[in-house]
Amino acid sequence: MKKQQIYIVSVIIVFIVVIVGILIYWMVYGRYFQSTNDAYIKGNITTISARIDGMVTAVNVEDNASVQPGTLLITLDDKPFKNAQNQAKANLQVKSAQLAALQEKKKVNDDQIAEAKAKVDQAKAQLNQDKKKQHRLTQLNKHDYTSDTLLDSVDAQVKVSEAAVKAAQATCNGLEDQINLINAQIQQMQSMVNIAQLQIKQTTLNISYTKINSPEAGIVTNRHITAGMNVSAGMPLISLINTDNLWIEANFKETQLRYLKPGQTVTIQADAYPDKEIIGTIDSITPGTGTEFALLPPNNATGNFTKVVQRLPVKITIADKDKLKNLLYPGLSVEVSVDTR
């Protein structure tokens, strides 16, 4: 009986020691750590799409292939765009020739206008001279110093000179009207030349768009095109995962939020590599719970209400990314523990 009592007492003592040890551990160390297993690795996934309509002539990469910036991924048929470019160049030559002809015509018309204005000035000078002579003879005729016949002759000459001025002015006005028409034609033709030049630039761009290159380094995934397929502008062709810029999105309970702040050290345990301990740092805390960004946010004012502890996404950066390259990928599950001391 005595041995049994000793055994019971020993068990109780061990139990008390264990409980005390756990309490001491929690008080000294454990209570400063906040953890969650609702965490996943995130990364930038770039969707590569076509910028023009066309037919795929070659797919130069396979799924899961590593690529560098500028790597040729997909080639589209460039023949239609080269034909359009040649047509645009021919159209530009025609419009440029027509513009040059109009400009030459304008130059000739300008010379004619200058000549017509000189004739107007000459006719006006002759009219002025004839009117002075008419005035002088009129004064002399009042005193009978000249004959009526001579005065009549001068009057007739004044009328001829006035008619000459009107004719010269009419010719000049007609040429000016013609030059205005030519200027309008030149402006219109210049617009056509500009349009033709823009068409050449656009066809040149379209030709460059037939070569789809990688915008950054990454791994090719989700490739669902083959040579011979017709694609349209904006159509997703392949996806590119940038494994050089990975982070962790950990969803902590709202009751844990008061312990977290940017800069705290985080211990990360990936489910895929349980033997590897990864170190990270809290980068930022999303200013809103996950439900607020849902497609259909919950409406708690509709009647029945059940309070659920909300979670906030916390962004955690990963240290020593180079050592973990080709080991971590977006979507992997991890467990994180934040040292809040």
Descriptive account of the structure:
This protein is α+β, with helices and mostly antiparallel strands. The strands form 2 sheets. A 6-stranded antiparallel beta barrel has the order 1-8-11-10-9-12. It has helices at residues 2-28, 79-142, 148-209; strands at residues 33-49, 54-59, 66-67, 72-76, 211-213, 218-221, 230-231, 236-253, 265-270, 273-285, 311-318, 333-339. The mean pLDDT is 82.
Roughly what fraction of the amino acids lie in strands? Answer: 25-35%
Secondary structure tally, helices: 3
Largest sheet: 6 strands, antiparallel, barrel
Main structural class: alpha+beta
Strand order of the largest sheet: 1-8-11-10-9-12
Structural Rg: 46 Å
Number of strands: 12
In short:
A hairpin with a 2-residue loop joins strand 9 (265-270) and strand 10 (273-285). With 341 residues, the protein is of the alpha+beta class. The protein has helices at residues 2-28, 79-142, 148-209, and strands spanning 33-49, 54-59, 66-67, 72-76, 211-213, 218-221, 230-231, 236-253, 265-270, 273-285, 311-318, 333-339.
Topology:
Elements: H1 2-28, E1 33-49, E2 54-59, E3 66-67, E4 72-76, H2 79-142, H3 148-209, E5 211-213, E6 218-221, E7 230-231, E8 236-253, E9 265-270, E10 273-285, E11 311-318, E12 333-339
Antiparallel strand pairs: 1-8, 1-12, 2-4, 2-7, 3-6, 4-5, 6-8, 8-11, 9-10, 9-12, 10-11
Helix pairs in contact: 2-3
List keywords for this structure.
341 residues, alpha+beta, 6-stranded antiparallel beta barrel, 12 strands
